[in-house]
Design goal:
Blueprint: H1 3-15, H2 22-38, H3 40-51, H4 55-81, E1 84-86, E2 95-103, E3 106-110, H5 116-129, E4 133-137, H6 143-154, E5 162-164, H7 169-175, E6 182-186, H8 189-201, E7 206-209, E8 215-218, H9 224-236, E9 248-252, H10 256-270, H11 285-294, E10 300-302, E11 306-307, E12 312-313, E13 316-318, E14 336-342, H12 345-354, E15 360-364, H13 368-377, E16 382-385, E17 406-407, H14 412-418, E18 420-428, H15 443-452
Parallel strand pairs: 3-4, 3-6, 4-5, 6-7, 8-9, 8-15, 9-14, 13-14, 15-16
Antiparallel strand pairs: 1-2, 2-18, 7-17, 10-13, 11-12
The structure holds nicotinamide-adenine-dinucleotide.
């Protein structure tokens, strides 16, 4: 079957209204969870082959997210899908008003490679919970995980409901020509624009989960040990190949020497050596070469070791970095941590504002005024005060970017919203019928109208 035929079969299936039944949705979500559970080991093996990601990290940062989301929807689906009663304004009395949730229809989910299971399947879980069908296009870069997901889904679900397309740019370009009711894309801002343009052709709504350069501010009021520990973890997990990783550090000048000392101690303690099971490889040679070029040897104060065959880049810290350095011209997406220095927090914030709006920002400070200043002045997708990455793990928070880092959000209730239409219905009584709105219009009616509205 070609893509047009698969989508056509999904349209037919959606129009049979089966996905609107909440029990159908719950059964599919349970089935997906059971399948992942049954094949968990194969999923771990596949991702290990692709970029050496350990079972610990794969469970903690990928599989557990999928389970958690499925459990959330199983528990909350009835209330999420239930029509919500809202107030009715005076001109619509006697009447009642409700917001009905309806699935958008036939969805396309395009995944990124860096957390291939989480970033591909959690949007799919939200799409199914909201009652849609789905075509899934995982990233082709981690080939084994792409194939593992394709096997898991295509061998167990009807393609008229759920189908994984294997392939890269050529295949995605073909699929993007089709008319979907929703496209959910995770990836780079560059490809995000291509997806957005293709969606515009059919007026298809999109969620774009993109990237950018996410800063971490470390002020003189930070707990430096806590900051170092949480930054090192957040930066080097997945070997820095994390969309919300702190891309660079912006450190207040007077505490910098002390902070660097603690930071380097913390990196050494975590022992991210060449054969460490807990340190991933760089995804491919192309990214390895790109990252190697970002390491300005004159500015390396820690690490800088590279091994192309093993696709290993050691945690590398660069100091005395300026906004003009190559490493500050693009999202790093690897284990390289540049340090910039500031004297005045307002000026530092202004410098960040000059760039694109980041996907995340992290504020290490115990001073409420400093925290508020950064929160109020800087626009970014989401982040943490005194931590890194962990906001993504709270499904009560929406996850997404703003401006160049994305459009829309998901997780928990917000994922359900991303794949639903809110149908607004006024239910009007047939008994009360004021003459006011009907012609002929009179001065008396106009007076009342002006008072009422
Ligand atoms: P990418 O944009 O290169 O690829 C993403 C997807 O788009 C893949 O499935 C790929 O096959 C497809 N694609 C690539 N080129 C295409 C083209 N020309 N036409 C159509 N489809 C195309 O991104 P990536 O390398 O997989 O991921 C890295 C980027 O994603 C980083 O910028 C990172 O910050 C961002 N990211 C964002 C999030 C988030 O949740 N906001 C999560 C992970 C990654």
């Amino acid at each position: 079957m070609n893509y047009t035929e698969i989508l056509q079969s999904q349209k037919t299936f959606f129009n049979s209204h089966k996905t609107k039944d909440l029990n159908f949705r719950k059964t599919q979500l349970k089935k997906l969870k059971n399948l992942i559970k049954k094949h968990e080991n194969q999923l771990y093996e596949a991702i290990y082959k692709d970029f050496g990601k350990s079972e610990f990290e794969t469970f903690g940062t990928e599989i557990s997210f999928i389970y958690k989301d499925i459990d959330y929807y199983l528990k909350n689906l009835n209330s999420l899908a239930k029509p919500k009663k809202v107030k009715t304004n005076i001109v619509n009395q006697l009447g009642s008003s409700k917001i009905y949730r309806e699935p958008l229809g036939n969805c396309l989910v395009i995944g990124a490679w860096n957390y291939p299971y989480q970033l591909t399947l959690t949007p799919v879980v939200a799409a199914l919970a909201a009652g849609n069908t789905c075509i899934i296009k995982p990233s082709e870069l981690p080939e084994n995980t792409m194939k593992a997901m394709a096997r898991l889904i295509n061998e167990n679900f009807d393609s008229a409901f759920l189908y994984v397309v294997e392939g890269g740019v050529e295949e995605t370009t073909e699929i993007l020509k089709l008319k979907f009711d929703k496209i959910f894309f995770t990836g780079s801002p560059r490809v995000g624009k291509i997806v957005y343009q293709a969606a515009a052709e059919h007026l298809t709504p999109v969620t774009l989960e993109l990237g950018g350069k996410s800063p971490a501010f470390i002020t003189e009021n930070a707990d430096l040990e806590v900051a170092a520990r949480r930054i090192v973890w957040g930066k080097f997990i997945n070997a820095g190949q994390t969309c919300i990783a702190p891309d660079y550090l912006y450190v207040q000048e007077n505490i910098k020497p002390k902070f660097i000392e603690i930071l380097l101690f913390e990196i050494k303690k975590r022992n991210y050596h060449e054969n460490a099971e807990h340190f991933c490889k760089i995804i491919n040679e192309r990214n390895f070469d790109r990252l190697e070029k970002l390491i300005n040897k004159e500015k390396v104060i820690f690490g800088g070791e590279t091994h192309r065959e093993k696709r290993y880049i050691s945690p590398t810290v660069l100091d005395h970095v300026t906004w003009e350095d190559t490493v500050m011209q693009e999202e790093i997406f690897g284990p390289i941590l540049p340090i910039l220095t500031y004297k005045n927090l307002d000026e530092a914030i202004e410098k960040v504002i000059e760039g694109e709006k980041p996907l995340s920002a992290y504020i290490f400070s115990n001073n409420a005024k400093e925290q508020t200043k950064i929160l109020e002045k800087l626009s970014f997708g989401g982040g943490c005060i005194n931590d890194t990455l962990m906001h993504i793990s709270n499904h009560h928070l929406p996850f997404g970017g703003v401006g160049n880092s994305g459009l829309g959000n998901y997780h928990g209730k917000f994922g359900f919203d991303a794949f639903s239409h809110q149908k607004a219905i006024l239910d009007k009584s047939i008994y009360l019928e004021p003459e006011l709105k009907y012609p002929p219009y009179t001065d008396g009616k106009l007076k009342i109208l002006k008072k009422l509205l």
